[in-house]
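sry for the spam today, last one i promise. struct tokens for design, 275 residues
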């Protein structure tokens, strides 16, 4: 009897081993270990800065040997900063049902990209002893990132608020694509008297395209002369635009002058960025 029991136990053990081996072999041979594959009808894609992230996937397809077409699962994994020609690299990733994944890369470019731009809400004029603050007057906007004022850096400054005069500063800003723009500005530190006149501009910073000739006098908003009762004509303001080269991209300054009855001369500066 014991002999038969031993035989039965041995047989059951062998059957268990065979079953476990068969199950392992089945799982091994049926496990999805193949990566998906990408295909594309172009190795470069053009998109608008206002497009959704999915626009980068145009012309890109993905297929898996078990799951079939998985194009709708393609994700943009990363976007590089600009190359020298303003193209950039987009990296894609896709997963199948078994969590196998594949990646690929191709270049892309924006059809309507514009570099970051600065704006000036007030003239850069301060009184002796004032705290010179830039963030409440200078802003930066980007077509991709939006407001990037918090990314501005005061790269250079020689301002002394204790001594009247003109000083230079240089502000830079960089967007997430690595495009850096700089804005040199003249800072005026003044010690005005009750008789000091002033020239007020409607804009303190403008952008123009190369070859465009701006109507510089149209930016004179008003003239204030404390010693003159009547309204002072803006035609009395003199304009010096000798430094402005509208045909060459760069940052230039146009100076406006008015000498009041007190003999004091008011100045205003229009910063012109030629793109």
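last one done:
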């Amino acid at each position: 009897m014991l002999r038969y029991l031993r035989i039965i136990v041995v047989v059951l053990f062998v059957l268990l081993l065979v079953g476990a081996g068969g199950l392992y072999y089945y799982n091994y041979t049926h496990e999805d270990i193949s990566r998906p594959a990408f295909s594309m009808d172009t190795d470069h894609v053009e998109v608008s800065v206002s497009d959704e992230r999915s626009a980068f996937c145009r012309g890109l397809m993905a297929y898996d040997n078990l799951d079939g077409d998985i194009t709708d699962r393609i994700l943009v994994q990363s976007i590089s900063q600009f190359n020298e020609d303003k193209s950039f690299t987009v990296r894609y990733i896709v997963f199948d049902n078994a969590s196998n994944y594949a990646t690929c890369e191709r270049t892309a470019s924006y059809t309507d990209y514009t570099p970051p731009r600065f704006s000036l809400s007030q003239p850069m004029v301060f009184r002796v002893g004032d705290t010179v603050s830039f963030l409440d007057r200078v802003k930066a906007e980007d077509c991709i990132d939006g407001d990037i004022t918090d990314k501005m850096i005061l790269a250079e400054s020689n301002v002394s608020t204790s001594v009247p005069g003109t000083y230079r500063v240089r502000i830079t800003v960089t967007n997430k694509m690595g495009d850096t723009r700089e804005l040199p500005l003249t800072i005026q530190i003044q010690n005005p008297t009750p008789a000091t006149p002033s020239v007020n501009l409607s804009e303190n910073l403008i952008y123009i395209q190369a070859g465009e000739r701006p109507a510089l006098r149209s930016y004179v908003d008003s003239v204030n002369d404390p010693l003159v009762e009547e309204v002072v004509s803006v035609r009395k303001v003199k304009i010096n635009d000798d430094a402005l080269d509208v045909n060459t991209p760069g940052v230039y300054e146009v100076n406006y002058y008015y000498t009041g009855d007190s003999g004091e001369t008011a100045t205003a500066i229009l910063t012109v960025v030629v793109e």
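The CA atoms of residues 194 and 226 lie 7 Å apart. ok im logging off now
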